[in-house]
Amino acid sequence: MILRKRNVNTLEKDAFAYVAVWQFIAFGLLLCLIWASEVLDFPQLFFATARESVNIFRASILSAAIILCAIITVGHTYIQQQHVIGGLLMVCSRCKKIRINQDLWQDMDHYLEKNTLVSFSHGICPDCYKIIESDLNQQKEGRPLTDQGTSSK
Description:
Elements: H1 2-13, H2 15-40, H3 42-47, H4 56-86, E1 97-99, E2 105-107, H5 108-115, H6 126-141, H7 148-151
Antiparallel strand pairs: 1-2
Helix pairs in contact: 2-4
């Protein structure tokens, strides 16, 4: 049981593999539907058509086509997702801007919103809140600001 949980947690951390598993499950359900239709004769059950005999050749051809589509679809999706994320980005270590080309730098949040499906909402983490609060208190007391408020940026 513990081993099984560990595999699920690993799968959830790799979003690409998680998507691929669900795509394979969907294609597996299509395969099951083909064979169930062949054995149970869905047209006869649902539309009262004449009963047909089981045609293994037809079901095998359809199954092979679905397996081929599954491999192409899942493989293509996985490769495209890796390509989107896999690009190496140069990020300024001070201001966190991303280098677009030799002379152009862009804010990270704007770059990611433009080039991915990510959208941002900004907030303040507890550590930064303490720094900002400390800086505000120092300003109220008339003391010069410490460098801790600007060192993270």
